[in-house]
């Protein structure tokens, strides 16, 4: 079994989701220094490790893994 880490906000948003680093980057909530670190680290990780969804295509299936929120991009209408 593989282990994947998820960096996320400490406080849930109004939909009850903890925004991950991708959401923070996309919404421009990272400082320039944090964004540069994230981008460099993400590029390195992409080159060093396989995409989890290509290893296990069922990983993001909410029916099979209802508690798994790793990188899931589903949003409620309030948080879209």
From TrEMBL:
> What protein am I looking at?
Uncharacterized protein
Which organism's genome codes for this protein? Mycolicibacterium neoaurum (Mycobacterium neoaurum)
